[in-house]
């Protein structure tokens, strides 16, 4: 079954692992922008899923310099090594406007851009400004297809490269020492390692459970961040606090380097008031030689360690504040210097971006895992076809319906089955639900056949719909297949039942009408009423009443509302009495009753017991050869009483035995006689099971059949009871 257009699927890494790898590579490089970007280009291109990617940095001479490239030849690299700000190149336009750009390759104004697209065999070119602290430091340019969308990976990758360029720039203008830069990049490396532990996306199937142990630990992240920065700038204490409401404490509040027992002695976390509030509420960096000299200072709890110098920086992405970083008491000095401030601000921006991405990824992972578990529990088969990669993700019900496992990465190349019309002709590939959904169409069809790879056919209903992003971009197609075998069987049984009822009612009703017409004619002629005619009407009425009763009992059994009036009953005596009553109604068959051993009484409804045994005896006489004996054996079995009825008839075929007690089912011998509605054994089984008993059958073709019913014995002290059906 071709679920969508054939394409070579690609293996999609997770955003978290790609960003982590990129940060690690950036952190391993020096302050030279060229070496910095060049060392990360492979990871950067992988993060974007791009065959070609270029990184340009703003040069002090007001030109754009190529500092990293992947996927282009040496000649093209030389041609774009330096670009003018007012040039036609996409990178120059991106830096000049400060906006992300996306153009069709054929419409690129610069020959170098078109050459890059040809080299990558790409349909589009994209450019993203690299911005840190509100300053455009360069541009990221890469080639891509129209369908590809790196999503949050693009934002994360661009942010990481921008911050790394900012670090290199700071080193170049002398605001960071070699030692501090190395330590900052090392901290970036550690942040990348931390992000690598963000849960990965379960893209292989709809069955991956949510791993609670892999949940992103906010407090642990902040503790590690505070410890890294404390060590980076030489602070005695560091803390991260989240919150802006002066009436509430920071939550969470994570402190490192504080004396043991101090937080317990203080008793509660601080609130964003005083000097702490200047950063938390105002969003401004505060650097103080002595915190007591600040006009907003409101004091320090007596149980708290002494604080002198303070460096406080908001953890902000520029658009959103995620917390505040506080550093106290510069080791080996009276105050934190400007280089410390720049270092912490740069690292805080990176940490805020990383934290925001991590929380978004984890939230997305949590929502996705929850959705996956919901879909996995869905009884209908559900599959998603990814528009970009061609991957097929399917839940277990979908695989069970196909009769085989779905390998996501093989996409439409794997043979999953054939979807056919009701006449058996296969649907064309472009008419399948997935293919139509990938064209933006919604489909709904109820009368299709799924032909599995083993040749078996399953009637299915098919639904297909496109899946779009919030912005309307086509992400893929969802296909739902429902096995409608039971529905088709119910429809078939309903039709057969209607035909049987119509047939079985027509004959007695016609006979009744005929008898009434004869009686009317006799009455008009003054003839006396015929007793034979009245007897025939009585028999017809009894037959109609029995059919109506069977239908009513069937409904009661279906609803588990069979009324029972149980009394302690000697089943051996009840069996003998019933046999004597029905002996004359089963033709020329002799009936022998054998009682084995002493028997205990059973708590049974006598009327229902008579119906059960009468049905078994009438069936035995109806389907046995004339003159043969019907045997009835009553004996104690398994703490109860068993009654076995054995005939010497034609027997029942093995393939019919499992369906023998189904509603409306008639074995071949019953169909040949065209008798009944196929409810007798279904009702018999329902009555027996309502008593807590069981029924089964043994049969051999040509030798006859034995039906066994078992009732549990009455418990000591049991008294008559009336079971009221549930409302």
Describe the structure in your own words.
The protein has 727 residues and is of the alpha+beta class. The protein contains 19 helices and 25 strands. The strands form five sheets. A six-stranded antiparallel sheet has the order 3-2-1-6-5-4. The chain has a six-stranded antiparallel sheet with strand order 13-12-17-16-15-14. Helix 1 runs parallel beside helix 6 and helix 15 (531-558) packs across helix 19. It starts with 14 loop residues before the first helix and ends with a strand.
List strands and helices in order, with pairings.
Elements lengths: L14 H13 L5 H16 L4 E6 L4 E8 L3 H6 L2 E3 L5 H8 L3 E4 L6 H10 L3 E9 L2 E10 L7 H21 L5 H18 L22 H16 L1 E7 L11 E4 L5 H5 L7 H7 L5 E3 L21 E7 L4 E10 L7 H40 L3 E6 L5 E3 L1 H7 L15 E3 L12 H6 L4 E9 L5 E12 L5 E10 L1 H40 L6 H28 L5 E6 L1 H12 L7 E7 L5 E3 L1 H17 L6 E9 L2 E7 L21 H6 L6 H11 L3 E7 L3 E9 L8 E3 L4
Parallel strand pairs: 19-21
Antiparallel strand pairs: 1-2, 1-6, 2-3, 4-5, 5-6, 7-8, 7-11, 9-10, 10-11, 12-13, 12-17, 14-15, 15-16, 16-17, 18-20, 18-25, 21-22, 22-24, 23-24
Helix pairs in contact: 1-2, 1-6, 1-7, 2-6, 6-7, 6-11, 7-8, 7-11, 8-11, 14-15, 15-19, 16-17, 17-19
């Amino acid at each position: 079954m071709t679920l969508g257009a054939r394409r070579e699927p690609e293996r999609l890494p997770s955003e978290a692992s790609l960003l982590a790898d990129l940060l690690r590579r950036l952190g391993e490089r020096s302050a030279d922008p060229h070496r910095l970007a060049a060392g990360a280009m492979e990871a950067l291109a992988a993060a974007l899923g791009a065959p070609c990617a270029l990184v340009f940095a703003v040069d002090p001479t007001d030109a754009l310099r190529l500092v990293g490239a992947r996927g282009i030849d040496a000649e093209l690299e030389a041609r774009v090594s330096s670009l003018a700000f007012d040039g036609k190149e996409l990178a120059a336009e991106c830096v000049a406007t400060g906006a992300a750009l996306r153009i069709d390759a054929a419409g690129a104004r610069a020959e170098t851009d078109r050459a890059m697209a040809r080299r990558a065999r790409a349909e589009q070119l994209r450019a993203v400004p690299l911005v840190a602290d509100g300053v455009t430091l360069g541009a990221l340019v890469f080639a891509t297809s129209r369908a590809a969308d790196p999503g949050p990976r693009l934002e994360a990758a661009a942010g990481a490269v921008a911050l790394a360029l900012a670090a290199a720039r700071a080193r170049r203008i002398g605001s960071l020492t070699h030692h501090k830069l190395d330590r900052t990049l090392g901290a970036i490396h550690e942040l990348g390692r931390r992000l690598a532990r963000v849960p990965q996306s379960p893209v292989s199937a709809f069955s991956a459970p949510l791993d609670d142990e892999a949940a992103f630990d906010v407090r642990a992240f902040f503790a590690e961040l505070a410890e890294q920065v404390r060590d980076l700038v030489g602070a005695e204490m560091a803390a991260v606090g989240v919150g802006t409401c002066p009436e509430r404490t920071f939550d969470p509040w994570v402190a490192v380097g504080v004396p043991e027992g101090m937080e317990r002695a203080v008793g509660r976390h601080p609130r964003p008031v005083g000097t702490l509030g200047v950063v938390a509420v105002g969003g401004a960096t505060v650097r103080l030689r002595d915190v007591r000299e600040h006009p907003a200072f409101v004091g320090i709890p007596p149980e708290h360690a002494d604080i002198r110098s303070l460096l406080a920086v908001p953890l902000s992405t520029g658009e959103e504040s995620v917390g505040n970083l506080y550093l106290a008491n510069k080791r080996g000095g009276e105050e934190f210097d400007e280089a410390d401030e720049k270092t912490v601000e740069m690292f805080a921006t990176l940490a805020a971006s990383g934290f925001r991405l991590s929380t978004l990824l984890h939230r997305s992972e949590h929502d996705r895992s929850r959705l996956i578990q919901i879909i996995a529990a869905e009884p209908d088969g559900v599959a998603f076809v990814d528009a970009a990669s061609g991957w097929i993700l399917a839940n277990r019900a979908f695989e069970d319906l196909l009769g085989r496992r779905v390998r996501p990465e093989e996409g439409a190349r794997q043979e999953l089955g054939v979807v056919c019309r009701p006449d058996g002709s296969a649907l064309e590939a472009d008419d399948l639900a997935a293919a139509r959904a990938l064209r933006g169409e919604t489909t709904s069809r109820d009368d299709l056949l799924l032909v599995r790879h083993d040749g078996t056919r399953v009637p299915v209903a098919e639904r297909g719909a496109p899946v779009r992003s919030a912005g309307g971009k086509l992400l893929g197609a969802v296909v739902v297949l429902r096995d409608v075998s039971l529905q088709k069987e119910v429809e078939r049984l309903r039709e057969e039942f209607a035909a049987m009822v119509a047939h079985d009612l027509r004959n007695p009703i016609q006979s009744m009408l005929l008898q009434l017409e004869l009686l009317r004619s006799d009455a008009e002629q003054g003839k006396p009423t015929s007793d034979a005619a009245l007897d025939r009407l009585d028999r017809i009425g009894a037959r109609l009443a029995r059919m109506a009763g069977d239908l009513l009992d069937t409904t009661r059994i279906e609803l588990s509302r069979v009324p029972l009036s149980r009394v302690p009953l000697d089943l051996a005596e009840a069996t003998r009495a019933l046999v004597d009553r029905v002996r004359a109604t089963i033709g020329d068959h002799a009936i022998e009753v054998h009682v084995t051993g002493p028997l205990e009484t059973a708590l049974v409804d006598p009327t229902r017991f008579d119906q059960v045994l009468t049905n078994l005896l009438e069936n035995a006489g109806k389907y046995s050869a004339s003159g043969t004996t019907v045997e009835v054996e009553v004996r104690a079995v398994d703490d109860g009483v068993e009654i076995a009825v054995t005939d010497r008839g034609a027997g029942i075929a093995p393939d019919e035995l499992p369906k023998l007690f189904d509603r409306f089912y008639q074995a071949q011998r019953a169909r040949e006689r065209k008798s009944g509605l196929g409810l007798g054994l279904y009702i018999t089984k329902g009555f027996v099971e309502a008593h807590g008993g069981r029924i089964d059958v043994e049969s051999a073709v040509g030798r006859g059949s034995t039906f066994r019913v078992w009732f549990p014995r009455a418990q000591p002290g049991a008294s008559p009871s009336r079971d009221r059906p549930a409302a």
